[in-house]
Amino acid sequence: MSVIFGGVDGGTSGSRIVLLDEKGQQLGFAEGPHTNQWQVGLDETVRRLLNLIDMAIENARLPPHTSITHLCMTLSGVDTVDTEKSLIRAMRTARPNVAGGITICNDAMGAYMAATDGRYYISHLVVKKFLEIEDGLIPWEYSMDKIRKIVFDYFEIQNQFGLLYHFYEVFNKGKIAGLCKTLAAGFQNVFAETQTLFRWQGILNLVRLQLSASFGAARLAARLHAGVSLPCPPDATVPMDRLVISL
């Protein structure tokens, strides 16, 4: 086997790896436990990643400990350059020939639609607009009293500065996303303020991802390390719906 591109999608709920050849054909695939080093520690993360790689190599019917030519891993818990370097260093210490080139990045957008179904995006947008309106940065024709009460009651705060605690000190996407439910109730009660906040302009094409995001990581490894654009599988996504949204 001349070239092997590896891609790992390591979310907090589980991890997947795919091995592709130079034509983008799948060689091997494996699934395993999550690999967030902030939850299980660096050593355990390395152990799980190496086990995941070994399972994929076995699935591809390659010799044990075959070196992956180029490996890209999108992982939860890799938030800085320092954590990225420390993980790569730990993996190479445990197995120097694990891969020729290794790239690690954070799976930052994973919860955007999957984990919170867009609720975090809407909640974040509303809070952002709320603060801009409160500071007089954008014109607004409605009273903010109802929205202010919804936001303050939900986060149990007395003023807008209390939001800093929830968005910085104890940041929790699930908690912030939950605000959307209360806002939606306001929409159902025909609050003109929330109706306006729930509208924006554009066309949204919804598709369902049929493959593991590890395929995207492997394609990224090929592009970054070898300058190769691997083809995207034709069945990677399935159209679901198209929403036309206007102000």
From TrEMBL:
SUPFAM superfamilies, alphabetized: Actin-like ATPase domain
Molecular functions (GO terms): N-acetylglucosamine kinase activity
Source superkingdom: Eukaryota
Coiled-coil annotated residue ranges, if any: none
Protein name: N-acetylglucosamine kinase
